[in-house]
Specification:
It is a single chain. The chain is α+β, with helices and mostly antiparallel strands and 150 residues long. It has one domain: Pnp Oxidase, Chain A (Roll), CATH 2.30.110.10. It contains 3 helices and 8 strands; from the N terminus they run αββββαββαββ. Strands 1, 2, 3, 4, 5, 6, 7 and 8 form an 8-stranded antiparallel beta sheet that branches. The radius of gyration is 15 Å and the shape is globular. The relative contact order is 0.21. The mean pLDDT is 92. It comes from Variimorphobacter saccharofermentans.
Length: 150
């Protein structure tokens, strides 16, 4: 049986680290693990140093993929999710305060400072893999998102 958007979003929330994929200036994929993260529904927030290479990459091409994998999983009950969307820098003070609080909830020792930026990835699509789904057609589920509703 297919999972609901709420079930998928709860899974995203349970994940403590993500892999963020961007594209370099040379149009090559670039991947890194991030721990200063949080989700709000299907939106993913992450903190980074403002002068990090990923910032320049996102400015040039905001299309990103974010891979979620909850810890300590074992086959046959293995689940992961990939969020495809656009990343944007959080500049609104109210959203920034919310993002910092969400990240601190997920990573209590997180400290906000002026040399950091927070980005949000707003999903266009989420691909969800559930190895324990009974039917083969239910193992991979694609969920489309309208950014105005997320």
């Amino acid at each position: 049986m297919a999972l609901t958007k709420n079930q998928i979003e709860e899974y995203l929330k349970s994940t403590k680290k993500i892999l963020l994929s961007t594209v370099t200036e040379e149009n090559k994929p670039d991947l890194r693990i991030l721990g200063a993260i949080a989700t709000d529904g299907a939106n993913t927030y992450f903190s980074t140093l403002s002068n990090a290479r990923k910032v320049t990459q996102i400015e040039l091409n905001p299309n990103v993929a974010v891979y979620f994998e909850a810890p300590d999983q074992k086959f046959p009950n293995y689940i992961n999710a990939t969020v495809y969307g656009k990343a944007r820098k959080v500049v609104c003070e109210k959203e920034l305060e919310k993002a910092v609080a969400l990240i601190k909830d997920n990573l209590p020792h997180f400290e906000w400072s002026d040399d950091k930026s927070i980005y949000v990835v707003e999903p266009d699509q989420i691909k969800f893999f559930n190895s324990s789904a009974e039917l083969a057609q239910d193992k991979v589920q694609i969920v489309e998102y309208n950014n105005k509703e997320s």
